[in-house]
Amino acid sequence: MGPAGPQGDTGLTGSMGPAGPQGEQGIQGEPGEPITGGALQAYVYGAATTAPPMTGRFRLNNADQTAATVMWLHFTNNDGINIENYVMDRVAVGDTLYIQDRNDATQWQLYEVTGAVTDSGDYATIPIAWRTGGSSLVTNEQVVIQREGAGLVLGTAAYINIHVGTSAPSSPAVGDVWIDTT
């Protein structure tokens, strides 16, 4: 037999074959991060128990933070950002407002919004009820305020399980989502 000849040119690419069958549904993943509300807003706690609050401040209608039933929140936060649209469009009955001292995590309060937010000119009037807290907030100290959407309470996990496949999950939980891929 003689020596091998030179390699020939590459031929044309053939057409794509049919798609294979759908694979089995994978195992459920770990729960995701809790659903959260809005960005942290910077404010200063003012001890006066009457409206209106000054720019960058919020006040409560009771010196006993656990007995407060109204919060007055200036629309301009301590960073000089006007959040009126956010407050008036997003803060609703059932939401929670988590307030914590910026430098001391032991000083915090959690309130639930109990009524409609009122636009009072430069500030919002927010009906609230105290739910839980740590040490009292200190007058004239910087704090951060975060809104949590209705039904979500700080310290509880709010997870959504998402199932993807061609058949519904065999034992779904309330709130689960199924994405049908057929």
Structure keywords:
182 residues; mainly beta; Elongation Factor Tu (Ef-tu), domain 3; 7-stranded mixed barrel; two-stranded parallel sheet; 30% strand
What does this structure look like?
With 182 residues, the protein is mostly beta strands. 4% of the residues lie in helices and 30% in strands. A seven-stranded mixed β-barrel has the order 1-2-3-7-5-4-8. A hairpin with a 3-residue loop joins strand 6 and strand 7. The radius of gyration is 28 Å and the shape is elongated. The protein starts with 40 loop residues before the first strand and ends with a strand.
Architecture blueprint of SSEs:
Layout: E1 41-46, E2 57-60, E3 70-74, H1 84-90, E4 96-101, E5 108-113, E6 118-119, E7 123-133, E8 142-148, E9 162-165, E10 177-180
Parallel strand pairs: 1-2, 9-10
Antiparallel strand pairs: 1-8, 2-3, 3-7, 4-5, 4-8, 5-7, 6-7
CATH class term of the domain at 41-148: Mainly Beta
Helix content: under 10%
SS summary, helix count? 1
CATH architecture heading of the domain at 41-148: Beta Barrel
The succession of helices and strands, N to C, reads EEEHEEEEEEE
Quick gist of this model?
The chain has 182 residues and is mainly beta.
